[in-house]
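Q: Hi! First time doing this. I have a protein sequence and I read that you can turn it into a structure. Is that right? Here it is:
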Amino acid sequence: MTTSGRPYDADPPTTDDSLGSLVTHLTDDLGRLTRQELALAKAELRDEAKKAGKGAGLLGGAAVAGWMVALFLSLTAMWALGEVMHLAWAALIVTAVWAVVAAVMAASGRKELQEFDPKPDQTIESVKEDAKWLKTQNN
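A: Yes, that's right. Below is the predicted 3D structure, encoded as structure tokens:
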């Protein structure tokens, strides 16, 4: 029920209604429509923000763990290569490998971020439908 006591699925006002009554019904309907659209937009954006936040948190934790693994693996590789060549050259080789890994990861991360869509598609479609409905009501 609305504040005016009319149910949401009430029949449109009849031609016998007064101008004041028609304006009241229109105002109630537009107010309700606006509140519903805003609620839908909030819900969509909240869901997308939750997904992005959860993903960012998981990526952050994985990054810390991965950094530790990479650090110790790099030191191990450098010392292993240091057995067959000068330690400085071994360090340079390990650094070059990590530069390639960083470039590949940066390209992949950029691609993922480009696919993120914060636009509330359902709300936009619903507003378009509402606009069409309003046009038919004016005719």
